[in-house]
From TrEMBL:
Pfam families: LGT. Keywords: Cell membrane, Lipoprotein, Membrane, Transferase, Transmembrane, Transmembrane helix. InterPro entries: Lgt. This is Prolipoprotein diacylglyceryl transferase. Belongs to the Lgt family. It comes from Chitinophaga eiseniae.
Amino acid sequence: MQFPVYIHLFSVQLPLHAVTETLGMFIGFRYFLYLRKQRGDQVNQPNRLWAIIGAIFGALFGSRLLGALENPPGLLQTGNILLYIYQSKTIVGGLLGGLIGVELVKKIIGERQSTGDLFVYPLILAMIIGRIGCFSMGIYEETYGIPTSQPWGMKLGDGISRHPVSLYEIIFLLVLWMLLVMINKRYTLVSGATFKLFMIGYLLFRLLLDFIKPGYRYAFGLGSIQLACLAGLLYYLPSIVFPSRLIQKQYA
């Protein structure tokens, strides 16, 4: 397998990653609409639309900003800082930025219902499709692992056996999806709990995964994404310490 992987559409040659990014967002949103129709929505139509707008703009800003902070020397040396920020992106920044965007919008419009649960499975699906594209880029995008002597190590374009971290993430997301489905079948969760569990699981996974990814390190050997994951986990600390709060109480 040669990296990066390209596909041919008529006379146009496109990186597979560009296709999977677009496809992931499209399929994920269609899945969201399907779930909303099947399960109903506690949030009324106008407020749901505002929440989506807040999520989109928050995700765009958070993804770019945190992505740019992954490599401070590159950020400081660039000739066009706005272009550098725009071209940088990371899913962790997108998730946290989207969370902040939605919460700000909810404060403004006075929405008290949780808006995150319906997004969870569509998000996981979109992320899986997107990570297939990340894997197809090999070492030509910053989603590869450090060298390894493990038998599952893969040569991603530079002849060095590396951790295929994109594949690790795909496997983790599939397992997380199944666990969330099982938890929802076993327990009646409070509104918003599924989204909280998703965020806690993914942030913890990325905190650990980035130890086997190359990149700039700040304090305590942690990169910008890991520091953002820690901040997110602190935000969800009450749910981590008291998980029973996520389960709806049954009254006789």
